[in-house]
């Protein structure tokens, strides 16, 4: 639970850093789960001759290094979401027990309940971000899960149907997040409305709407979180360290309100009214994403964003 002072600070500043939320046990399980998932993919790449070193003896970071150096698409198999376009029956994603335990982690739900009340849906706008040192990011890589993140408000990355949805972003540091490795930066005291955004390499706030000189870094040690209001402008700079910068960002909205990405599955994470509605089994969560993948693979593309090149300030 958040204290009244923390809630007041979130309400005025539009973000809140909370240290020591995710315990070492869950962080370790996440790291182990990710290492074993990557190992399966890495073995396949090795069998196909795409990487020369065998997986045995390589840890998570070493496998990422080699996959990156070989130009392989290592990110999507690790993401807890499907991509925004070109989904096929084979598009990989990650849904495992430790990731599900993070989405349903009691200390996180308690904190979010302090802001949104006890009827909480896990919103499908969620990602892992594993950002290599910037010098190892492939030229032309613009995805904000690997490369720096452009200025945006999270309301701007959902569809308009969710503009009234009560939602909060929970950004979770798996490695220490520092200015040097490209932690979040936020502009405190958000406006009452959403700025126009532009469909550039990433969806980003239109020119001249924000004063980035007011930005403050949201540094947080591993296991800590940053709560972000949907109208708070935020971004992340390049990872100038020599290690990976790993985070998850997950979201919760009040149950029954539009998620902003209806083609992807949500689930009830907490319910005081109907506890039986809470999803408890990670396999069901995985199946929901597999079903969404099948539907997407055989359906016309659905745009995730509403912005047009001729939106104000996008020239
Ligand atoms: O971690 C990042 O680079 C960006 C995260 C973000 O935009 C979010 O959590 O909403
Ligand atoms: Fe964001």
TrEMBL record:
InterPro entries referenced in this protein's UniProt entry, alphabetically: Phytyl_CoA_dOase-like
Assigned keywords, A-Z: Dioxygenase, Oxidoreductase
Entry annotated with the keyword Oxidoreductase: yes
Protein's UniProt keywords contain ATP-binding: no
Lineage: superkingdom: Bacteria
Gene Ontology terms, MF aspect: 2-oxoglutarate-dependent dioxygenase activity; iron ion binding
PANTHER family, A to Z: PHYTANOYL-COA DIOXYGENASE, PHYTANOYL-COA DIOXYGENASE DOMAIN CONTAINING 1
Protein name: Phytanoyl-CoA dioxygenase family protein
Lineage: Bacteria, Pseudomonadati, Pseudomonadota, Alphaproteobacteria, Rhodobacterales
